[in-house]
Amino acid sequence: MTVWLEVEGEKRRVELPGEIGAGSGAVECLVDGRSIMADVRFLQAGVLSLLIDGRQYRCVLDGDGVVIGRRRFGFEVADPRSLQGRRGAGAGTDGPRPVKAPMPGRMVRVLVEVGDEVEEGQAVVVIEAMKMQNELKSPKAGRVVKIAIAVGDAVGAGDVLVVVE
Amino acid sequence: MIEKVLIANRGEIALRVIRACREMGVATVAVYSDADRGALHVLHADEAYRLGPAPAAESYLRGDLILEVARRMGADAVHPGYGFLSENAEFAEACAAAGVTFIGPPASAMRVLGSKTRARQAADAAGMPRVPGSVTGLADVAEALRVATGIGYPVMLKAAAGGGGKGMRAVTRAEDLAAAFAAASSEAERSFGSGEVYLEKLIERPRHIEIQLMADEHGSCVYLGERECSVQRRHQKVIEEAPSAVVSEDLRRRMGDAAVRLALSAGYVNAGTVEFLVDDAENFYFLEMNTRLQVEHPVTEMVTGLDLVHLQLRVAMGEPLPLTQEDVRLRGHAIECRIYAEDPENHFFPSPGLITRLIQPSGPGIREDCAVYEGWNVPLDYDPMLSKLVAFAPTREQAIDRMLRALDEYVIGGIKTNIGLFRRILMDEDFRAARIDTGYLERLLAEGVAPVLEDVPEDVVALAAALFAASARRETLAAPVVSEESRWAVAGRREGLRL
């Protein structure tokens, strides 16, 4: 089975043998064409032990990431075409930029109005979550073109709250 | 005799109290809000009762509802844990009036020692050194200016009913005092329902060291050593340890004696903690008294070998303390890390949500007081504390290394946590050398919280990710395609229902 991935922003191609994790010892896997002999064992759902050259790696699946040792690496399963399409998109300071809620919470203050000019890093809204009030800042200098929420609203993680153009 | 205890709290402290009760053969009643129906304290209690919606003001802070549950369930005592109603003298009084034992100090002692200004007057009366400043609440800015000029800048404004860093402002110049006074007072009003603030001299680079007390109603009071709580962020403790690396036998005895004097003078009973600031010259100054069990009590339990919640229950039953000051022996070193659902790399934003993965540390010398599990949705309505990880070892150095080892074993997936921050602190040279004061963590954070990372070959990461992706794909292919309707039909057949 061939798996196309983007790991920490890098495109990777991994070829896996058909049968894995049966306890038969090391199997050959190819990462970007390089051969790795790995003894693979799924210990429980989302927890994997990899033995490579005698070194043990405890790998834990965490949402869209894998935790190995103390580090978490984000990854995405993808095919090569879709990866090419997304390169370069979303970056830069041109065009509208949203201020998104980094966590769920409740809107307690809106510090700007539509049409206001804001500086990069200027606080635009305050969300309360877990007994803490958190200021969210503008990602760029520009003009507020949209306010998508009102004081008292519940917000979800990733919700667009304000748009600065 | 107490036979059934209602635990008026949630989270790890509720579970902690339930466990102690069970060990002592005492039945337990949990209370919960709608956000906590699936919480571990509900699961572990003998009985559980819904209080109301998620906001604390409509559930865990409803003393009237809690007492009603106690009456209905036949609970003869209430343990308040920490936070919520634990330092609420009216609630303690209401318990007494309802014939329910409040497992904590009497309301009268709480009134004296729970208010910071009244406690300062009591400390003066008990001959305890305290930070120079106003003993009573300040009437207005003019009085604040007068006091500040008298003791000299820098000064600290503090809420009389405060806690957790709320209503506090440091002021270095007279011209900033008026604005800081207004800000501290309004924050205090919002947080504690009282805008009263007082002012004291800001001690430069102090350590925050506190003495744990236990007193019975027969006039005995012992101190159980000290805890070093200098590692703080925004006046909130992050790491606590016992004993303090800088407290000598002599200083411990002097602080302990002073704390006991204060408690006895106020008629204090049950567990309490006297907080001090300590300077380089081993001078100590009374800060405030916490009239409840504290978050950091486990480090004292580890070095004294005592179970403080057991003692709380025995004292509440009217038993005399089973030990004298001479019986208190400290051994080894304990460190506690407060594991929070927050993101140190992104302004410490809170991070509530689903815990998708939980691998808890264990092994020699590790204790974890925790109330979360894999699949638990950390609600956004309460404090972000997930667990308290405690490492115990014969020496401080070994306890630090043990804690680092435990942190390496710990995996909490799905949400952000401050585990990486603890690695950063525990590997810091100044922390390891115990060169800490209450400003230590802010200085360290100013250097950034770049996580301490080890090398993992890129190919191994890619391979692991691919294996998880492939296994998920296999599971998807293997699972039968079932629509929502037919799943209900299957369940219905299994349950013998007719659909």
Automatic annotation (TrEMBL), chain A:
Lipoyl-binding domain residues: 99-163
Domain of life: Bacteria
InterPro entries attached to this UniProt entry: AcCoA_biotinCC, Biotin_BS, Biotin_Carboxyl_Carrier/Decarb, Biotin_lipoyl, Single_hybrid_motif
GO annotations of cellular component type: acetyl-CoA carboxylase complex
One Pfam family here: Biotin_lipoyl
PROSITE patterns: BIOTIN (PS00188)
Biological or metabolic pathway of the protein: Lipid metabolism; fatty acid biosynthesis
The UniProt record lists the keyword Kinase: no
Function: This protein is a component of the acetyl coenzyme A carboxylase complex; first, biotin carboxylase catalyzes the carboxylation of the carrier protein and then the transcarboxylase transfers the carboxyl group to form malonyl-CoA.
Protein known as: Biotin carboxyl carrier protein of acetyl-CoA carboxylase
Organism: Tunturiibacter gelidiferens
UniProtKB/TrEMBL annotation, chain B:
Gene3D superfamilies: ATP-grasp fold, B domain
GO molecular function, one term: ATP binding
Residue span(s) of domain Biotin carboxylation: 1-446
Record keywords, A-Z: ATP-binding, Biotin, Ligase, Magnesium, Nucleotide-binding
Pfam families in alphabetical order: Biotin_carb_C, Biotin_carb_N, CPSase_L_D2
Domain ATP-grasp positions: 120-317
Signal peptide: none
Broad class of enzyme this protein falls into: ligase
Protein name: Acetyl-CoA carboxylase biotin carboxylase subunit
